[in-house]
Design brief:
- The complex is a heterodimer.
- Helix content of chain A is 40%, strand content 26%.
- Chain A has a 6-stranded mixed beta sheet with strand order 6-7-8-3-9-10, sandwiched between helices. In chain A, strands 2-1-4-5 form a 4-stranded antiparallel beta sheet, covered by helices on one side.
- Chain B is built from 21 helices and 9 strands.
- The two termini of chain B are 37 Å apart.
- In chain B, 67% of the residues lie in helices and 7% in strands.
- Chain B has a 9-stranded mixed beta sheet with strand order 5-6-4-7-3-2-8-1-9, with helices on both faces.
- The chains are: A alpha/beta, B alpha+beta.
- At the A-B interface, α2, α3 and α4 of A face α11, α19 and α20 of B.
Chain lengths: 255, 674
């Protein structure tokens, strides 16, 4: 298996001399191709900051991040834009679909920006839409779609350019449980059938149970790592709950 | 406490307010400058007639200012509403924190008050400074001497500006209080989450509407080109209504129509961010087409007003030299001995001149001769207004000996007519090329004319040198005839013309003063003075005055229209910029680089600014073509030069608003990290 992502001793500080916040504190890990990795942690643990650094939206204070052997911490902003376009796909909590464009146009946008000929782009969209079962919402505008449909359109947009890695930030955060389950099933099938590499940030144990491996973060540090291995999803869910209990544990000890 | 908050708010959002603030200050400045025209005389040595004209200009500008204050009031209310809407969320937070609506309203009122005070101050300061230059321009227009620099400050214009804008700001404060009281907290807090529903009309409907608008506009153009605008009749009103409706439908359907059209061409539509830009425009134009229509029509007015104002200026300029061949002319209807008549009022012509020429215009013996005798043979060559107004009027006769004495007074060669010969006279033809051509054509075609039953030969060319100093336009058509032809003809109008003796310039001034004093003294008398007296200075001043009125009013209105339309567009774009910011951030996240985003933003704003301007230009081409026909009756105009000046003015003002909008939008859109 080839390595897709290598996070090497990354630190991210906020604030100034007076009040320094270490949002990420010496974090290192690798992700191999085809993995479905979750990052879990409570609010303020630094998981979104970490994702922002990986997604090149934010810059690290020190350390290096390699995606397919290119060091994104050394890139210029013009390179970063095309890198984001070609190598990364994003799924956000609030969908981030463009309200002025219909489903098809939202999905095809990254290809338009990259200058992919329209015929090719169209067949790619059709293919992805079929896979995510959203063919019938392609002509609709975001405000005409349900939350689940919107998120699947967003997922389609994320994978349309065949990125090296899909980054998902709380993708089920604003979905009801049924839509969340449908989205997770789609992500799972992308992972299994297309061998897509997915990095997902979540604080929800159920969402996390779809992952093949979970990294737990607390106060900016890697706290624990959990591999699903041959366990069923239900068993894995139990293991996650145990770790969460442990994570929250030390506060309990103090009391 | 909330005053402090208001102060902080204004300072903090200064960047958002910059354009608003600059627009306000500029309007105040323009308002002051144009209302201070009368005060400019402090720097000049002017005659009583010039003072009169300046008073008239001030009065006219005063009326126009009321209209202008309505336009500016609308602009300021509109701008203020935009600013409040933009701050819905902030207002929502104040309300959730327990601030009462009244207090929030008071805070907004304080903000308006602060902005009002600052922009009023800055505008007045700039206005007072700029009005110093206006003196130079005014002096130039009236061709008078500057008496040396003096600081000009018009307390009347100052007060007027403060009062007018004060009232506008009070209205704005009142309206913002009203609009606050109508908001619901839930809407305020969710203000930035609301997605605008994409209202899409059916493709067939947009296509039909678009074709309808193009047809309406085309028909309006064709009709107006055919019928002209000489008369403001029902037809013209219908044409105007068609034009306005066509413009409205054009903007209502344009973006939808083009969107569909471009969607058919997938290659272009899906290239880069084209799709995004088009959708962006389409999403707003559904709500913005009404303001686009108004802006377009306003720009059309601006272009029309500016170019015709400058044009009329030139036309009048070339006209007046033919109207003032002598230092003074006295005239009176009927047979009257003018020096005797004037003596009754204690006025002695001999005091001013030794060489007064008395002369008259006569009817022919039969009193049947009309201008139709000549004009009737060349009807197709003469301008409409001459045909309509003058053709049935009697043709008057001038004695050859009078004519030659008048030429001599001007230092010009007289003419000799052989026996039985008459000459065609028209000083009006000198600045109406069509009439000149028609008369020349007539003289080539005809060799004789019938006066009271006798045929006379025609002198080879029309005579055009002026024979009377008068602000009214000259003699359209008359005949210079040997003295014996007049015979017992009745005197229609009596004249005395002369040049002053001694130092002509100071004599003229003295004459003017005495005439004014006399007029003043006898103005309440029942019949008034029967003799009309005009000096060349008065004629020149009247000409310069009409020139100045048209230029000042035109430029004043033009500038106000221009900044209003540019400011409305700019404010719309800026208030959208924060909505757009989210969209552009999404684009950045999915990998559009800054270059691409800047390009898309530029395209979007450029289309918004250029669309109304482009249609306004097309309207104007038609409008100016038609207007030229009217103005060229008054004198030839240099259309191209005026259009270039107008274009430069529009490019500078409109262009600066466009650039300011682009750069501030860019700042707002890209302010978010990344």
């Amino acid at each position: 298996m080839t390595e897709i992502l290598r996070v090497q001793d990354v630190e991210k500080y906020y604030g100034n001399k007076g009040s320094l916040t270490k949002a990420i504190d010496h974090v290192s890990f690798n992700i191999e191709e085809g993995e479905f990795v979750g990052i879990m942690g409570a609010s303020g643990s630094g998981k979104t900051t970490l994702l922002n650094c990986i997604s090149t939206v934010d810059k690290v204070t020190c350390g290096h991040i390699f995606i397919r052997d290119s060091d994104i911490t050394e890139m210029k902003s013009s390179e970063l834009a095309s890198f984001r376009r070609n190598e990364l796909g994003f799924i956000f909590q609030d969908f981030n679909l463009l309200d002025t464009l219909n489903g098809f146009e939202n999905i095809v946008l990254p290809l338009s920006i990259s200058g992919v000929p329209h015929n090719q782009a169209k067949s790619r969209v059709d293919e992805v839409a079929k896979r995510l079962d959203i063919q019938d919402v392609l002509a609709k505008y975001p405000y005409e779609m349900s939350g689940g449909q919107r998120q699947r359109v967003a997922a389609a947009r994320a994978i349309i350019s065949k990125p090296a890695m899909i980054l998902a930030d709380e993708p089920t955060g604003s979905l009801d449980s049924k839509s969340a389950r449908m989205l997770l099933e789609s992500l799972d099938s992308l992972h299994k059938n297309l061998n897509a590499t997915i990095l997902m940030v979540t604080h929800d144990a159920f969402t996390a149970s779809y992952c093949s491996r979970i990294l737990f973060i607390k106060d900016g540090r890697l706290f624990n790592e959990l591999v699903r291995g041959s366990n069923t999803r239900k068993e894995f869910f139990g293991m996650i709950i145990d770790v969460i209990t442990l994570l929250g544990g030390d506060a309990g000890n103090v009391l | 406490m909330f005053f402090k908050l208001a102060l902080k708010n204004v300072r903090k959002s200064f960047r958002d307010y910059t354009l608003y603030f600059l627009t306000l200050s500029f309007s105040v400045c323009v308002f002051y400058v144009f209302n201070s025209i009368e005060a400019q005389k402090a720097m000049m040595s002017i005659s009583s007639s010039t003072a009169d004209i300046l008073k008239t200009i001030t009065m006219i500008i005063g009326y126009i200012s009321i209209f202008v204050s309505f336009i500016l009031g609308f602009l300021i209310v509109y701008a203020n509403n935009f600013l409040i809407r933009r701050r819905k969320k902030e207002i929502g937070i104040y309300l959730t924190l327990g601030m009462k609506k009244g207090k929030v309203a008071r805070m907004l009122v304080s903000e308006t008050f602060l902005i009002g005070i600052v922009s009023l101050g800055a505008g007045l300061l700039a206005g007072i400074f700029l009005s110093q230059w206006l003196s130079v321009i005014t002096a130039n227009l009236f061709d008078v001497d500057m008496t040396g620099y003096r600081f000009v400050f018009s307390s009347m214009a100052f007060l007027k500006t403060v009062i007018y804008f004060g009232v506008i700001f009070i209205i704005v404060m009142f309206l913002s209080t009203v609009s606050i009281s109508k908001y619901k907290l839930i809407d305020l807090i969710n203000a930035d989450k609301q997605n605008e529903r994409q209202k899409l009309r059916s493709p067939l409907l947009t296509a039909v509407l678009f074709l309808l608008s193009v047809t309406l506009l085309g028909a309006a153009y064709a009709l107006v080109l055919k019928n002209g605008i000489q008369q403001f009749n029902t037809m013209l009103r219908i044409e105007m209504a068609m034009g306005a409706l066509g413009t409205f439908l054009f903007f209502a359907s344009l973006s939808g129509f083009f969107l569909r059209l471009l969607q058919l061409n997938g290659k272009l539509y899906f290239k880069g961010l084209n799709m995004f830009v088009l959708r962006q425009i389409n999403s707003r134009i559904n709500t913005a087409h009404i303001s686009m229509t108004f802006i377009c029509l306003m720009l059309f007015c601006t272009i029309g007003i500016l170019s015709t104002a400058l044009g009329a200026n030139n036309a009048l300029n070339s006209g007046y030299k033919f109207c003032a061949p002598f230092d003074a002319s006295f005239s009176s209807a009927g047979k009257i001995d003018i020096p005797t008549e004037m003596a009754k009022y204690g006025f002695d012509i001999g005091k001013y001149t030794d060489n007064a020429v008395s002369y008259a215009l006569y009817r022919d013996k039969s009193e049947k001769l009309t201008k139709e005798a000549i004009l009737g043979t060349v009807t197709d060559k003469i301008p409409d207004n001459i045909r309509l107004f003058f053709i049935k009027q009697p043709m008057l006769l001038i004695r050859l000996s009078d004519y030659n004495r008048l030429m001599e007074l001007q230092g010009l060669e007289g003419i000799t007519l052989s026996k039985g010969q008459v000459a065609v006279y028209s000083d009006y033809a000198e600045y109406t090329p069509e009439l000149m051509a028609a008369l020349k054509h007539y003289l080539e075609k005809e060799s004789s004319i019938d006066i009271s039953g006798t045929k006379y030969d025609l002198y080879g060319k029309p005579l055009t040198n002026g024979i009377v100093t008068s602000a009214a336009s000259g003699i359209v058509l008359a005949l210079v005839v040997p003295d014996d032809v007049i015979g017992a003809g009745r005197i229609e109008k009596s004249y005395v013309s002369f040049n002053c003796k001694g130092d002509r310039k100071s004599m003229r001034k003295q004459l003017e003063t005495e005439l004014y004093a006399m007029q003043e003294k006898y103005k309440d008398q029942k019949d008034g003075i029967k003799v009309k007296a005009e000096t060349s200075d008065i004629v020149k001043t009247v000409a310069a005055g009409s020139k100045a009125i048209i230029s000042f009013v035109g430029i004043y209105l033009g500038i106000i229209f221009l900044i209003t339309s540019a400011a409305v567009l700019a404010l719309q774009q800026l208030s959208e910029a924060s909505d757009n910011r989210k969209r552009y951030n999404i684009l950045q996240k999915i990998g559009a680089d800054n270059r691409l985003i800047n390009k898309a933003l530029m395209k979007q704003i450029a289309i918004y600014f250029l669309l109304p301007l482009a249609l306004a230009c097309i309207h104007s081409i038609v409008g100016i073509t038609v207007a030229n026909d009217v103005i060229s009756d008054v004198g030839g105009i240099d259309a191209l030069g005026n259009i270039i000046i107008t274009a430069v003015m529009i490019a500078v003002v409109y262009g600066s608003y466009f650039l300011a909008t682009y750069f501030s939008s860019k700042q707002i859109v890209l302010k978010g990290k990344m």
